[in-house]
Amino acid sequence: MALLNRLRRRGPAPDGDPPGYVADTALLADLRAAVGAERVRVDGAERALLRRDASVFDGGAAGPIVLCDDAEQVRAAVLVANRHGRAVVPRGAGTGLAGGAVPLGAPVVISVARMNRVLSVDTDARIAWVEPGVVNLDLTTHLAPLGYHFAPDPSSQQVCTIGGNVANNSGGPHCLADGVTNAHILAIEVVLPDGTLALLGGLDAEPAGYDLRGVFVGGEGMLGIATRVAVAITPNRPAVRTLLISFDSATAAATTVSAVIAAGIVPAAMEVMDQRITVAVENYVHAGFPVDAAAVLLAEVDGLEAGVEIDAARIADIARDCGATEVRLAADDAERAALWKGRKTAFGAVAQVAPNYYLHDTVVPRARLAEVLDTVYNIAERHDLLVMNVFHAGDGNLHPLLLYDAREPGVLERVHAAGAEIVEVSLAAGGVLSGEHGVGIEKQPYMERLFSTADLDHQERLRSAFDPACRQNPGKVIPHGHSCADIQSLREVPTGVWG
Amino acid sequence: MSSRPDTTATLAAGIDDVLVDFARLVGDTDAFTVVGHRTRDTVGGPVHPGTREIAAPSGVVDHDPAEMTVRVRAGTPVADLAALLASAGQRCALPDRGGTVGGAVAVGENHLEVHGRGRLRAAVLQVRYISAEGQVITGGGPTVKNVSGFDLPRLMCGALGTLGLIAEVTLRTNPIPAVQQWVRVAAPPIEVANTILRPGCVLYDGTNTHVLIEGHAPDVDASIRDLERLGASSTTDGPPELGPHRWSLPPAEALAPATHGHDTGASVAVAQVGTLFAARPQPPRSPDAASMEIGRRLRERFDPTGRLNPGRDPLVR
């Protein structure tokens, strides 16, 4: 299976090209003429780095890399690629977990990482214009003195970019009350796959036309390249309460999450960590997480003073009714920050336990969380794997981490088999393939389990309305049998020619 | 062509017979327009004469308050849905001025209380529609969070039924706040918006700001006291009278339409959103040429024979 082969090939990236590869000199000459030679990178080491993103997929091959500083350069590079019949793959920080930024077929890789300016902030209208390479947390840091923040806060927020957030419709722990990226994007200036510059959406209340802004968000870089984004900025809340609640079973934690929502409370965040990951996190950040609890729930409410007091007390009561063994209120901002640091660095903390992990991302109805979680533990046990669970419980968004050591013979087959079962059990419970990582390459084989042939055909119609030539980040999301000319586009690179 | 989808896919397996029957009625040949309560049937222009009329199926299929979602058929009156949700202490983003659920989604206008309820386009989690080929298509998914595949629900919001006839939607719901209180205050809207955290609505009539305060009782009381410090204020029973014509402007222009050359007559603006309710209609507006071209391609691909609401045009409002 292709997925398994990609897993198997994982290893240090080669720092050069395979013997026999030669550059496409005509393409390189045109790119250099269009954007300036200094912006076109061709050396093997740089291209090797950009073969991958933060996913496990290692089947990529980058063609020339174009480091753009503005929309005009993006446009120029796209037009050159089009003239040469070459695919284009946009790239931000490369932190995607589903392989969406992995270049397939030696495309022209257009990096917008250098387009990293906050262009304007209008606190009256609560809108900021930013370039796509702005790092998520940098935007919030920029807004902090004004009393605002950008609401989506993926765990990778210290490195991921707004352009990447737009491409993946990213989430994060605090998207429970405020919604994922799509709810915070008003307008996007885009270089379309044919090289045209367009403004999708608008600053007005209900822009005319189809909601192209809405479909571009989450388009996984296949509908064009964002060059400027108008984001909604959210006022900081004067009062916050963060509760750390211990349970003697993960099921009790999940039951509490459902009960809180059923009681009409929508906290700012509700995150669950099981014991294994809590121990790993505590060893890493020393934030005072209880290492003897089977699971902990990190629940945060924000707003005005009286309301957060009322809601925090109700959540504590509900948790006790559901069997909580301890309810702790973060005493101050420092303790709250330490707890969130623990949650957000959880994936790094597992390195103490095993050298490799595979992070899954499915969503199930909240009411099925406890049951699906039990099944996830059973699946891992049956495949003789260690699983840790840390997830956005309020959204029903599961993130099982399967831990392994890639040097162990046969382990990757087990990781893959267990992962496939986790996806299946999530779908069987009425869930979906991905809550925030996207489909990319990773979930592509599962799309036919969720969607019918006709459903996929309509997604393809949407895609092809933006990109009739199928040259924009080809080979992703829609399974190959349902996609127009993907395969053709990927085959247009003559063997042995990378650039 | 069979309208019964293959059911190996989990979403297609959830399509009920009511939708399959609706698809059969629509078939794959004649031109159709879905008719609800005709509350917004002039938006985007009239359908071509001779177009067959059909009503979408109605009824709430599933509402589980603990999931904060509701699955409802397109022909259901918005008022019926609102009443059902309210009985469970919840609400949604659909505007409450008559009409059907499918009509509200197809037109895409926000509820007046958009600050508190969110934009309509963000509330549609899953959509089922009848395609030009007469098939039931599912886009999105039933969960509150989902990035599985391209976002067809966003495409259907505001499309006036030109890319598919909406049959059923799954909407995000939210709890109704413990207390809601309208207050009129003689202060600039931005000052009011910056004073009230998470209001339900902020309106500006050119003189006074009208704000819907939402939350727990002690916070609402404290907010009312905060407003008193900004200017003369009094609690009211509801929003001010709104003009008949709906405008869509950038937020800054909506607060001072005349300054920006807009001939609105008397108007009330939704602050920080840009909707304006005015005495006079807004001139037609369109997206840029590139977006128009994608719109044209979408229509060509989703409705090659022009049988879905022919004549209506979401590109011109």
Number of strands of chain A: 20
Radius of gyration of chain A in whole Å, from Cα?
A: 23 Å
- Please identify the structural class of chain B as seen in this structure: alpha+beta
Give the assembly state of these chains. heterodimer
Q: Biggest interface in this structure? A: A-B, 95 and 91 residues
Name of the CATH first level of the largest domain in chain B? Alpha Beta
CATH architecture of one domain in chain A: 2-Layer Sandwich
Q: Tell me what portion of residues of chain B adopts beta-strand conformation.
A: 15-25%
Report a brief summary of the structure.
The complex is a heterodimer of chains A (499) and B (317). Chain A is an alpha+beta fold and 499 residues long.
Explain what you see.
- The complex is a heterodimer of chains A (499) and B (317).
- Helices cover 35% and strands 19% of the residues of chain A.
- Chain A contains 18 helices and 20 strands.
- The longest helix of chain A has 18 residues, at 411-428.
- The two termini of chain A are 28 Å apart.
- Chain B is of the alpha+beta class and 317 residues long.
- Chain B is 25% helix and 23% strand.
- Chain B has ten helices and 16 strands.
- In chain B, the strands form four sheets. In chain B, strands 13-10-12-11-15-16-14 form a seven-stranded antiparallel sheet. Chain B has a five-stranded antiparallel sheet with strand order 3-4-8-6-7, sandwiched between helices.
- In chain B, strand 6 (124-130) and strand 7 (136-140) form a beta hairpin.
- Chains A and B meet through strand 9, helix 8, helix 9, helix 11 and helix 16 of A and helix 1, strand 7, helix 6, strand 9 and helix 8 of B.
